[in-house]
Design a protein that fits this description.
This protein has 77 residues and is of the alpha+beta class. It has one domain. The protein is 23% helix and 26% strand. Strands 2-1-3-4 form a four-stranded antiparallel sheet. A hairpin with a 6-residue loop joins strand 3 and strand 4. The longest helix has 11 residues.
Length: 77
């Protein structure tokens, strides 16, 4: 599953995909997008939102790691 990105850059409008929001941000910054409001993210069947809104909706530390001291449900007992 990926996300669709539309970014306004100095050379024009870029449309592409990324696997996740951090990847979308790196891609847009590499292309020279002016700020995060210039980046629109679209998930299948949804309205486009800014990258900041997307990150707020899907708030999760990246990369995700379980809290320390939490039992891992696999491995030897």
């Amino acid at each position: 599953m990926g996300i669709f990105i539309t970014a306004v850059t100095p050379k024009g409008i870029f449309v592409g995909t990324a696997l996740d929001a951090p990847g979308a941000l790196k891609l847009a910054e590499g292309l020279g997008a002016m700020d995060m409001t210039d980046i629109k993210v679209t998930e299948k069947g949804q309205e486009p939102v800014t990258l900041e809104q997307y990150q707020a909706i899907h708030a999760r530390p990246w990369p995700y790691r379980p809290p320390l001291g939490r039992d891992i449900p696999f491995g030897p007992k």
